[in-house]
Amino acid sequence: MLIQKKWTHEKALIGIWHITETEDQLLSLHNYPVKWLNELQAISHSGRRCEKLAVRALLRELTGADHTILYDENGKPYLEDGSFKISISHTTGYACIILHPDMAVAIDIEANTPRAAKIQQRFLSPSELKLANHSPGFVVPLLLWTAKEALYKLISNPSVDFVHHLQVIDIKMDKQEMKGCVKDTETSFTLYFNIETDFVLTYVCSNLEHKSPQNLE
């Protein structure tokens, strides 16, 4: 079910779907194209099929229309009719979408668990580790992970390395903002986040050209 629909100050539209339905209940919400249903049934895991169905239901709730979601060579989603820029994310029990008519967008949602904190050495630089360890608990490492996931989706280059190429410079908990950049490009971004009981969500909107770092191997 749709639990949140909001316009951001960047005029992007964000929706969050709490996946409480069974697969059959999600299938009953809309009439899906036969080709898409065949592709859906090729997914072996029922949880993944529910996530796909929730995303389709959420997109219809947000736009009032059925849109075909396609994916480019890097796995980045886009709408066939080009009516919106889109980014999609899901975690245990939730799916989310961000849409914007003009600006590039990226979103990440993660379950509110200590998983990211346990592996933070794998995706944080030394300066970011200091930022993470400055605060107790596991929320800051989780925020940093969602920020880097969002930047990674925005750049859409599979060769980007989380430690060496993506940098979170600052977190402002009171404003629910983070500053991030892509190293070697002189490009910085403001990311916005929400911390909920079950999940953390971070998104970014940009009308800048998204350059990849020059020192990719």
From TrEMBL:
A family per Pfam: ACPS
Stretches assigned to the 4'-phosphopantetheinyl transferase domain: 105-177
SUPFAM superfamilies xrefs: 4'-phosphopantetheinyl transferase
Keyword field: Transferase
Protein name according to UniProt: Phosphopantetheinyl transferase
Organism: Microbacter margulisiae
Superkingdom classification of source: Bacteria
Higher taxonomy: Bacteria, Pseudomonadati, Bacteroidota, Bacteroidia, Bacteroidales
Single GO MF descriptor: magnesium ion binding
